[in-house]
Design brief:
Blueprint: H1 2-10, H2 17-40, H3 48-73, H4 102-116, H5 120-139, H6 145-165, H7 171-177
Helix pairs in contact: 2-4, 2-5, 3-4, 3-6, 3-7, 4-5, 4-6, 5-6
Length: 180
């Protein structure tokens, strides 16, 4: 079923040049845009300390999620769908294994961090872009659906761990959110 859904989504690649360009752009600049959006929260005027705390949580979740992925990659060696002849690749080949998707982890960790901080509008905006990033990874042929689901799960777990361990208004948080 994973291969069938992956093949179906990737089957739209090549049908519309504009959609292909859009999905390639999202897969290439989506995560940097999400990171930039999280960083820009630092200079928000409303609820400044809380937004700074959320931005720090997003950054920590981002890093923790990617670190977890590196651990998973030591044990799980899944071929990319284009290497298996399942998808048409629209971007350059990746040098690492397919599972889990780092793009999905990175984007979903930020979205979930903002959601867990009770910032629904920001979480919705980050979440929408994160879902586009996840979809683009399948569309361009570089990941299976379960690679993306696994990466998104890692991002969500990382955000939950950060939420549990890094407390708002702790001494460290007051110091960090007071910078600049």
């Amino acid at each position: 079923m994973d291969a069938a859904i992956t093949h179906w989504i990737n089957g739209f690649a090549g049908l519309s040049h504009l959609v292909d360009l859009f999905m390639i752009a999202i897969t290439q600049i989506g995560v940097p845009l999400i990171v930039l959006g999280a960083v820009l929260q630092w200079w928000s005027r409303d609820n400044r300390r809380h937004l700074r705390h959320a931005a720090i949580c997003a950054g920590l979740a981002f890093l923790l999620g990617l670190a977890i992925n590196q651990g998973v990659l030591l044990f799980v060696h899944r071929l990319r769908p284009y290497d298996a002849g399942l998808t048409q690749l629209l971007i350059a080949k990746s040098a690492d294994w397919s599972f889990p998707s780092d793009h999905a982890t990175a984007s979903m960790s930020v979205a979930m961090a903002f959601a867990l901080q009770g910032l629904p509008r920001r979480a919705l905006a980050f979440g929408a872009l994160a879902l586009l990033v996840c979809l683009s990874r399948i569309y361009v042929g570089t990941h299976y659906v379960t690679d993306v689901l696994g990466g998104a799960s890692t991002g969500v777990i990382a955000a939950i761990v950060v939420r549990a361990l890094y407390r708002e208004n702790s001494k460290l948080d007051r110091f960090a959110t007071g910078i600049l």
